[in-house]
């Protein structure tokens, strides 16, 4: 049997040392009437070769190679330098676990300390933790943290331009806690100062925003943050992890907590998981943070080294009073992002963001020249925008798929409030990977589909 | 041999202009007629990220990696974490295009292979647990707990019941109470009886119509099977409550007994433990849950369904779903590795894996019990908890000292000081993929350490790059981010 290597002779000797004659005797701990009397009904065991043949048949084609990818909505088809896969597949990182024994985990601990620093540098925020599950849970964890900071549990305000799946996660997380979630309706794809002021009051715990927002549009985060602060609420920003290459960093808006889906920075799409939850905040709130934190310290000989820090916040110590129930970080994905950022550096981040933006502008320009196609929102955007066409989006996207081009998602997929005419709307996302030829091909295909 | 230049912090290795070129120049013309980014939203300066050439990046991380212990390089008997061998064959399969590069909003027509695998995985986890409703959605075990508790809450609300309390024994993982609190329940901790077993009288005294869920790990965190689990379940069911099985220790019972058969109503799996995901220095995991049929309509979305008439797999939302607890489907990359593992072993192989995990743990127990106290008996399931209490009394050497000294001998330490109910606890879980030779060497080393001069052990580790980081000072003045000198 694969992975089970002991010979019958070894098993016999072990049983003898224990003082029993069969393995079954060890399982008498389980009352007989609770024991399974049959074999599990599972497929027959397969060899490595047979499994590879079956999986290659079923999974060997598809993914983003099934069509040119203009899909967006939170995760994106970005380039991953080979060095990321090469480094992170090293067994010493890959098959280690949580660095409980600091002396046996300095590689991991230093890499996570570097991750925290790189993310601080990327975001302009004081502190980053060593990562959470993904962007959506990071938003909910940010709201819990805001409650611990200002003690306001009754009301949380969120932008109607927040990713609908982030909103859905928020609704699930707070479904039993008696917190009212208030949506700020958007106007032409963005949140206005007036709408924000109307929603925020002195009971408001936090204002949750997204930059660029779910529709790809640029929000006036500075103003919205000032409104939140004036009411004593915290400003929470979900940002596009690539955007600091071109746009202001979250810290420059003055927000209190900034979170992101870190997938674009070196993690493959994998049908949406595992991903990377980036979580950052201002220094003064560090003891209220959820998740792992790595700190620098010195050892007995005064040598600089790294440890799991501020563990007294965590579930294994604080139990029901912990800052979160999270037990691990996303170690491997955090390492991927560390290697990614170390490799591409500031110039690579600028190029990645600028290329994505330029290509998005070019795509918007050529696509809106097609009769019956327009930008849904006349707003500046970063790398993604909502297109409105003369036909239902779902049918348009299916027709494009048939031509080998994946675009979307279409907005009727989501339970979006306050968006009229969304059945004809869909997102178009660009990354540095898309070429002019592919964009022109999309324009040609869309023209054909609509005519 | 150590290359200390390469293991400086990345930031100390940076030189302006010494970056790596990764991306090509733009191939699209500048355009007008599209809304321009306003100046006030643009970043002002270059990001303060380090600039490092690719060869230096590689050397840095390769050298850092050598400062780690890992399953690939060392015996790693970290109790409760199931550090078994991570099969290499899974890695290549997980990189197949549909597995690695599918976008979550891609059309179902391009995902049929992947969805068929995930659909099969749902069935496999239902069969292994004896609980028919499966959601692959939660990101990790702790999120599985939280999700199942919300599922239970939705079920009670649907029945018009207001149940507010979640109970758990003192030996429970910290995530249990943390998840219950997060899900809005009142937490009630039971002190437990002998051997860490649930005390039925104590439990009974706490049960009433406010009881929602009893969370229990079985085998428990002492590595013992709760003999009275069926009675425990009966007590809960009698008052209308539900039993949650923390599946952290599933590696002990695969194909031997099933949570659904011993009274559990819901459970989570830790796929990365039981079915070998890469532990990745602390994640990612995957924490799918399995529940009884009457709870299935409340499971989170999405789940994979199959239309046999059309031979078509699709994603759908259960009728009374609690919604999503994260974005997108789930941690597919880890779920797939679990699937590959189950396919490789089959039903017989899974049972054998558990048998050997239990054999190895009992063998190790038999090899250490004459010099290290094992307070909860001569038999265990897949792990056991020894106590360094006597050693500490006699020599002043603590469990932490022993753990650190093990590192000198090339063994990762067991889990220490957990569960809290055992003094100076050393929780050892060898797993089935370790050989008798490894276990013998480990036991002999432990024996040696227990008789080494106290001073030597208390000074350990002597061979690692660092020794006993000052955690107290780290917490007092947290330094969580490198900053440039004079800045």
Describe what this molecule looks like in 3D:
The complex is a heterodimer of chains A (451) and B (487). With 451 residues, chain A is of the alpha/beta class. Chain A has 2 domains: 66-79 and 346-450, Aspartate Aminotransferase, domain 1 (Alpha-Beta Complex), CATH 3.90.1150.10; 82-339, 3-Layer(aba) Sandwich (Aspartate Aminotransferase, domain 2). Helix content of chain A is 37%, strand content 15%. Chain A has helices at residues 8-18, 23-26, 48-59, 82-88, 91-94, 106-123, 135-150, 164-173, 193-199, 221-230, 315-318, 331-367, 393-402, 436-450; strands at residues 68-71, 127-128, 155-159, 180-184, 204-211, 234-240, 257-261, 277-281, 294-298, 304-308, 374-375, 384-388, 405-408, 425-429. In chain A, the strands form 4 sheets. A 7-stranded mixed β-sheet of chain A has the order 2-8-7-6-5-3-4, sandwiched between helices. In chain A, helix 10 links the parallel strand 5 and strand 6. In chain A, helix 4 (82-88) packs antiparallel against helix 12 and helix 12 (331-367) crosses helix 14. In chain B, strand 2 (165-169), helix 6 (175-182) and strand 3 form a beta-alpha-beta unit. In chain B, helix 4 (112-129) packs parallel to helix 10, helix 5 packs across helix 6 and helix 10 (332-368) crosses helix 13 (436-451). Chain B folds into 2 domains: 89-345, Type I PLP-dependent aspartate aminotransferase-like (Major domain) (Aspartate Aminotransferase, domain 2); 357-472, Aspartate Aminotransferase, domain 1 (Alpha-Beta Complex), CATH 3.90.1150.10. With 487 residues, chain B is α/β, with parallel strands linked by helices. Chain B has a 7-stranded mixed β-sheet, with helices on both faces. In chain B, strands 10-12-11 form a 3-stranded antiparallel β-sheet, with helices on one face. Chain B is built from 15 helices and 12 strands. The interface between A and B is large, with 213 and 198 residues.
């Amino acid at each position: 049997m694969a992975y089970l290597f002991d010979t019958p002779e070894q098993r016999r000797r072990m049983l003898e040392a224990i003082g029993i004659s069969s393995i079954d005797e060890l399982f008498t701990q389980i009352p007989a009437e609770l024991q399974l009397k049959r074999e599990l009904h599972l497929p027959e065991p397969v060899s490595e070769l047979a499994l590879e043949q079956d999986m290659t048949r079923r999974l060997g084609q598809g993914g983003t190679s099934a069509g040119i990818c203009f899909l967006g909505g939170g995760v994106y088809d970005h380039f991953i330098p080979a060095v990321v896969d090469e480094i992170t597949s090293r067994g010493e990182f890959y098959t280690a676990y949580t660095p409980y024994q600091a002396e046996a985990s300095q590689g991991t601990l230093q890499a996570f300390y570097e991750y925290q620093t790189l993310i601080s540098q990327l975001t302009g925020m004081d502190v980053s933790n060593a990562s959470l599950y993904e962007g959506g849970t990071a938003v909910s964890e940010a709201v819990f943290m805001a409650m611990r900071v200002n003690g306001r549990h009754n009301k949380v305000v969120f932008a109607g331009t927040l990713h609908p799946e982030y909103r859905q996660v928020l609704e699930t997380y707070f479904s039993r806690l008696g917190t009212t979630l208030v949506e700020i309706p958007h106007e032409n794809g963005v949140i206005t100062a007036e709408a924000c002021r109307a929603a925020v009051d002195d009971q408001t715990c936090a204002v949750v925003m997204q930059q660029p927002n779910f529709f790809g549009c640029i929000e006036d985060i500075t103003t919205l943050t000032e409104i939140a602060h004036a009411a004593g609420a915290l400003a929470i920003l979900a940002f596009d992890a690539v955007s600091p290459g071109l746009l202001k960093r979250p810290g420059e808006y003055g927000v209190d907590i900034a979170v992101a889906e870190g997938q674009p920075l070196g993690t493959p799409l994998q049908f949406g998981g595992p991903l990377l939850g980036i979580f950052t905040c201002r220094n003064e709130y560090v003891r209220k943070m959820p998740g792992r934190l790595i700190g620098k310290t010195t050892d007995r000989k005064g040598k600089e080294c790294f440890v799991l820090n501020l563990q007294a916040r965590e579930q294994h110590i604080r139990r029901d009073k912990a800052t979160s129930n999270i037990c691990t970080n996303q170690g491997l994905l955090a390492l991927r992002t560390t290697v990614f950022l170390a490799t591409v550096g500031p110039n690579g981040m600028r190029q990645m963001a600028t290329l994505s933006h330029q290509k998005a502008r070019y795509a918007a320009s050529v696509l809106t020249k097609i009769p019956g196609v327009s930008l849904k929102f006349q707003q500046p955007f970063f790398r993604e925008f909502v297109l409105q066409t003369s036909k239902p989006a779902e049918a348009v996207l299916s027709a494009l798929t048939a031509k080998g081009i994946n675009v979307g998602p279409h907005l009727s997929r989501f339970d979006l409030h306050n968006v009229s005419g969304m059945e004809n709307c869909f997102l178009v996302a660009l990354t540095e990977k898309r070429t002019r030829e592919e964009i022109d091909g999309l324009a040609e295909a869309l023209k054909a589909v609509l005519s | 041999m150590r290359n200390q230049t390469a293991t400086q912090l990345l930031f100390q290795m940076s030189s302006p202009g010494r970056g790596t070129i990764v991306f090509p120049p733009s191939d699209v013309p500048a355009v007008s007629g599209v809304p321009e980014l306003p100046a006030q939203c643009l970043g002002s300066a270059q990001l303060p990220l380090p600039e490092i050439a690719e060869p230096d990046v590689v050397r840095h991380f390769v050298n850092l990696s050598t400062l780690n212990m890992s399953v690939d390089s060392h015996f790693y008997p970290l109790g409760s974490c199931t550090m078994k061998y991570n099969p290499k064959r899974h890695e290549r399969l997980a990189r197949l295009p549909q597995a690695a590069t599918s976008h979550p909003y891609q059309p179902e027509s391009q995902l049929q292979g992947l969805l068929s695998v995930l659909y099969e995985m749902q069935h496999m986890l239902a069969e292994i647990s004896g609980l028919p409703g499966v959601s692959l959605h939660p990101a990790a075990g702790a999120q599985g707990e939280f999700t199942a508790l919300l599922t239970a809450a939705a079920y009670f609300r649907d029945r018009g019941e207001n149940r507010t309390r979640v109970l758990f024994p003192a030996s429970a993982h910290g995530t249990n109470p943390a998840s219950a609190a997060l899900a809005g329940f009142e937490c009630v901790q039971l002190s437990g009886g002998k051997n860490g077993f649930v005390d039925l009288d104590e439990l009974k005294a706490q049960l009433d119509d406010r009881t929602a869920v009893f969370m229990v790990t079985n085998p428990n965190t002492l590595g013992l099977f709760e003999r009275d689990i069926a009675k425990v379940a009966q007590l809960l069911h009698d008052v209308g409550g539900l039993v949650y099985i923390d599946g952290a220790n599933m590696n002990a019972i695969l194909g031997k007994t099933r949570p659904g058969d011993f009274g559990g109503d819901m459970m989570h799996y830790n796929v990365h433990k039981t079915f070998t995901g890469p532990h990745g220095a602390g994640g990612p995991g995957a924490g799918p849950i399995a529940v009884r049929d009457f709870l299935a309509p409340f499971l989170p979305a999405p789940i994979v369904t199959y239309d046999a008439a059309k031979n078509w797999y699709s994603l759908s939302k259960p009728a009374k779903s609690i919604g999503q607890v994260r974005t997108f489907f789930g941690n597919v990359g880890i779920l797939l590795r679990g699937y590959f593992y189950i396919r490789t072993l089959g039903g017989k192989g899974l049972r054998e894996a558990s048998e050997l995990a239990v054999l190895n743990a009992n063998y190790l127990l038999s090899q250490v019990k004459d010099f290290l106290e094992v307070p909860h008996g001569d038999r265990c399931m897949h792990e056991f908890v020894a106590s360094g209490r006597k050693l500490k009394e006699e020599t002043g050497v603590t469990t932490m000292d022993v753990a650190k000294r093990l590192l000198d001998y090339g063994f990762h330490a067991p889990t220490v000081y957990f569960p809290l109910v055992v003094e100076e606890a050393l929780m050892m879980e060898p797993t089935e993929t370790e050989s008798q030779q490894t276990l013998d060497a480990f036991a002999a080393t432990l024996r040696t350490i227990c008789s080494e001069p106290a001073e030597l052990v208390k000074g350990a580790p002597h061979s690692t790059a660092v020794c006993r980081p000052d955690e107290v000072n780290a917490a007092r003045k947290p330094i969580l981010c490198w900053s440039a000198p004079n800045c």
